[in-house]
Amino acid sequence: MVPGFAATATTGAAASALEAARLALLRDLRLAFRKRGQLVQPLAFFVLVTMLFPLAVSPELSRLRELAPGVLWVAALLASQLALEFLFRDDAYDGTLEQYALSGQPLTGLMFAKTTAHWLLTGLPLALVAPLAGLSLGVPAAAIPGIIISVAVGSVALSLIGSIGAALTLGMKRSGALLALLTLPLSLPVLIFGARATQLAINGASLLAPLELLGALAVLGVTLAPLAAAAAVRISLE
Amino acid sequence: MLDQTLEVENLHLWRGERHVLRGVRFTLQGGDCLEVTGANGSGKTSLLRTLCGLIYPEEGRVVWNGENVRRDLPAFHAALAYLGHEPPLKSDLSARENLRYWIGVRRRISAAELDAALLRVGAGSWCDRLVRTLSAGQRRRVALAGLALLIVPLWLLDEPSTNLDSEGQELVGTLLAEQLARGGMVIAAVHQGLPAAVRAARRLELAA
Hints:
The complex is a heterodimer of chains A (about 240) and B (about 210). Chain A has about 240 residues and is an all-alpha fold. Chain A has helices at about 5-10, 15-35, 35-55, 60-85, 85-95, 95-100, 105-135, 145-170, 175-185, 190-205, 210-235. In chain B, the strands form two sheets. Chain B has a five-stranded parallel beta sheet with strand order 6-7-8-3-9, with helices on both faces. Chain B contains six helices and nine strands. Chain B has about 210 residues and is an alpha/beta fold.
């Protein structure tokens, strides 16, 4: 034992909400890199689905390009769903969410930090591998930057919408199907505007309008989703 | 911390058809320790979770320093530490990492404080091992280090000595005695009584 322990444990200012959110984010990132299998699954799913499509439909380039926006975005939407189930589940089981709720810090900020980690680990990598998926669907190289940007912005909205569903289904066994039923309808605007942005990028037209709408959805998500997720988490802890 | 008071007024809690808490009431002041006993299912854990605001009771209220805690839950939460059945640790992080993130969310801690706390609970030689490789008793010791680092006036503990050997139970007694000596309060749900260092505890027995 260290005799001076009691003396050392007498100081320590409260952590700011920002510092608390930063630590919650870092903890999730560190844990994710220790469990790389979970990290790779959504990406592998996304790439596999988009690569299998040409084999099942037709190798004809014009036909593939026509289907590419829909295939890319449906695959991205389903891939982001795969990781959603894990967003809060482990934290609920091991008591972390309970400690977050009792930390005296705004739970909304901690939920936002967790969702940010989810996007960094799922949405951003999806955007980065989207060129690979796009090329396998015959998308011209000039459209790749537009696709990366639209998937990056759209996946922010998907992560935020997903966080509400993940929080609402906490505590339910086999919540995967219910989670999909809750979040997929809410994700339809992201799917529509994302596919439109990709279509315009493939055609070489300006994709500013659908991109702005995706951005608006992301901002709306940033504003409302952490609040809703925090409220749902509190209910699940009862 | 001596001027803190906790008043629990006529708490009634229903879980489904079960009337779990039936008019629980008590008052604690700085330096007081309350030992909550009762058979399995008598509502010890529910009482602790109700006190810390995780569960809403059907009737009654918890008053902290003269204010209903529901009026400012975050402020009340900042004043309490709750340790449940299972230590809130991530199995894929080391003991040291767990404490840094868990406690760091609440207060700034230095590396020296962290080291001192880990040494205090006997974790000096294994604090960098992943928690999933630790025994249940070692995990409990890590949780106790976290508890000691929180420095808050109210401790709510659910079976704090579970899985601990005799030295570990002695450590729990010392930590509780220190908390009480600095004017803090402890409410502990226990099956086998509190360690000898806190024998002066008041007792609340819950009926099953």
